[in-house]
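Look over both lines before class:
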Amino acid sequence: MYQKMKKLLFHMLIPAVLAVLMLPMTVFAMEVDHPVSIPVEITVSGTSVPTDVEYKLVLEAIDNAPMPEMSEISIKDGGKAAFGPITYTVPDNYHYKIYQKSEAKDNFTYDNTVYEVTVQVLNDGKGGFKANVVGSKDGSSGKPADFKFVNSYKKPHVPVGPDGPPGGGDHGGPKDPPTVIPTNPVPQSPGPVEIIEELIPEGVPLAVLPKTGDGSISLVTLFVLLAVSGMLAAGLIRRRRNQEQ
């Protein structure tokens, strides 16, 4: 009887001990998680690139892969960032896409690459996980994560006119001296004024006068002039005598 009880107790105790030993391991395995972040980068090439410009990247899950709290991130003026952390609780391969969704702006050209991302979550043999992040683009094979987007900016051409670029300002080019307009203009001195006194007495017919530019005087005209002069002289002498009397 004692031996039967001992054997029964032994057979009941061993399964119970094994169950107790396995229970903590099972619970521990269910609570294991492994956070992973996916790094990304944006660079902008060109000269005089405007500042305070935000570039947006998007992480899209494939096959219901776990997602981080934020699936879109903005990077101002370019630089590095990361999607994550993303928590994984089951070993598997998880697939994503990363692409750029920046707002279109003049003179900017955006990198339209679409990266295919695979997060490989594996058992580490110590009750936890380890993860590898690989990516590919344009059908290339997977490689270590390097999700880089290269944008470019082309400075607009500003035509330069005779007065310099539009908008004014001193741009260092040669300029003509300014024109100074006096507030009180100095009057110009008048030129010589030719004063012509008409010494032609009344009653002298115009036909006897020489025309302008005529270099010769006919005898008749000369005689008439002498006669008129004599008449004027006689008239003046007579007038003077009358005044003296």
